[in-house]
UniProtKB/TrEMBL annotation:
It catalyses: beta-D-fructose 1,6-bisphosphate = D-glyceraldehyde 3-phosphate + dihydroxyacetone phosphate. PROSITE patterns: ALDOLASE_CLASS_I. Pathway: Carbohydrate degradation; glycolysis; D-glyceraldehyde 3-phosphate and glycerone phosphate from D-glucose: step 4/4. Its EC number is 4.1.2.13. GO terms for molecular function: fructose-bisphosphate aldolase activity. It comes from Corallococcus llansteffanensis. It is an enzyme of class 4 (lyase). GO terms for biological process: glycolytic process. Pfam families: Glycolytic. Belongs to the class I fructose-bisphosphate aldolase family. InterPro entries: Aldolase_I_AS (IPR029768), Aldolase_TIM (IPR013785), FBA_I (IPR000741). This is Fructose-bisphosphate aldolase. Keywords: Glycolysis, Lyase.
Amino acid sequence: MPTMSGLDETARAIVADGKGILAADETVSTITKRLTARAIESTAERRRAYREMLFSTPDLAAFIGGVILQDETIRQDSSTGIPLIELLAGRGIIPGIKVDAGVHPLAGAPGEFVAEGLDGLRGRLEEYRELGARFAKWRAVFIIRDDGLPTAKCIHANAHALARYAALCQEQGLVPIVEPEVLMEGAHALERCEDVTGRVLQAVFNELFDARVSLEGMLLKPNMITPGQGRAGQASVQEVAEATLRALTRHVPPAVPGVVFLSGGQDPVLATQHLNAINALDGPKPWKLSFSYGRALQDEALEVWRGRREHVLAAQQAFHHRAWCDSAAALGRYSGDMEGEAGFAHPDSTLHAPH
Ligand code: 13P
């Protein structure tokens, strides 16, 4: 099958050397939970101000190749009156959009979920493309449980939906980010996560092949291979890195230009260390190995911001610092010493402080 050159270029640009993705596509309900947990009221204006604070961080384009938005944000304007999506594009950051309609209980598979949103997707993609989006994201989730979850049925249903979504994206000129997330919930061993993730990735690439998706024009967004969050005695950074690279080597074709990991609830520094360790491993790594973090990129900045205009510059410094560290990790050049260094130079210069 021929490649689709515009899509290939966009996919490669998003993960150009040292660049990754900021996932800022929390739904209104998810971002509301994160804001209210910090005693910040969640209004449309607050959510807009929060996203503008992130997007207008100085020098962001050195570390961030793409930002994933969601439906509310893609229609909002910055405080200077230009659409937020244009603010990003004007800074050389490629805008993308979350297009799944969330996960819903999968009939006939108790305790499991399927990501929905295929109905009417072609028209929605067309509209998002007109609004300026250049890539899209669809997230499926898989739960590990001792009684046999995930089932083959759940893996198949979600892999099939991911492939239909990806094919539609490419038809509409958008790069699909294919996100099969094996959740960290539970007390399972690292080996179990490796086995399940391998089965999921294999099923996803089988379906992508059958759906005639061009691998060169997509990005994969998987979980890293870790033990469950509730497991006593966590794995070392090296063990996580080795298992993650092993799973990718076995199940991800080299034609895929980039693998951008989700953070999945990992501590921000640990997510940086894991990414760095994966990139520092010897052995063939035919894809760019980078990040598409939500919480691990935003948590420190959100903690500092707390909804206050006077905290914008300090929050931007926290965000800049984490993006700088993750960018170094995407090149295998991160070191713990970087944690003590400051973010961008200076708060009282002429930096634009949005309100
Ligand atoms: P986390 O990095 O917080 O897991 O979010 C990434 C994401 O986009 C989940 O869909």
